[in-house]
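In this section we walk through a basic example: taking a raw amino acid sequence and producing a predicted 3D structure, encoded as discrete structure tokens. The instruction is simple. Fold the sequence below.
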Amino acid sequence: MKLRALSVLAGAAVLALGLAACSGSAEATGSDTAASSGSGFAVDENTLVFGVVPDSVDTETNYQPLMDYISEITGKTVEYHESTDYAALIEAAVAGKVDVASFSGFTYVTATNNGAKLTPISSIVTEEGQEPGYYSQAIVPADSDISSIEDFKGKKVCFVDPSSTSGYLFPSYNLIEAGIDPKTDITPVFAGKHDVSVQKVGEGVECEVGFAEDSEVEKSDAVKVIDETMVPGAPLVYSSTLPEDVAQELIDGLGEITIDDIIAAGIDGADTDSFRSVFYGTKPVDDAYYDLIRDICEETEAEQCQA
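The resulting token sequence is shown next.
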């Protein structure tokens, strides 16, 4: 299966085939761990805890208008759950400490494999007419002579996080396809965030080459892209333990909206260049949409996929 430079349409076609899963589905998996309030909420019935994969230093600021919108449609206070890394957000979801969240596809699969009760609603798109999905990009310093992933062998390679979809799982697959063992044929460096991975590759000291998502790569002129792979769009999810009426409000409010809908709801903070750069709207997705990630889990034997 060749994934490099996978188009949006091709990706959708592959996803529709329902590829084999590493283990379980989101709707069927989950431990008996209840939300800490005992009522289905992470805290209490007046509060929704919102978790986000910590992709960059601006993560909380970028998502504030969306949190304000969730508060508007549910009538509840929305608290930001700050995670130090991907693993911390996964642990919080498994423990029932998050009510609604923006995951990456890989963290969603990992969390549900380990008992988190989550249901996907939609995926954020950043441009009108766009379908869910974004690019994992292989990058090198702007003045580098490296022109292919095959040249990454023996190099210090920047990844984002062991649970990152575009910053580790798909890069690992592409390295394997290029005949490179991502554990023994390179020196892996985990940057923690996409913007940091881009920065370190641009500096060319800690990392000679690396990977990051396209939205962070395009902000830098210190690196250049030598390869890319389309990955499934990151899901907005809700805790399956939430009361049915609250879950339905989230489904109705987040299933298929645009930035104009959020602004019309009175969220003035959405009408900014910074929010427009990360959010245009949402498109519905379901658990089966992430079967491609489960298939890549099997291909790479990624430890994070295991329950």
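Looking at the output, two observations stand out. The chain has two domains: 8-131+233-305, 134-231. The chain has a mean pLDDT of 87. In the next section we compare this with other chains.
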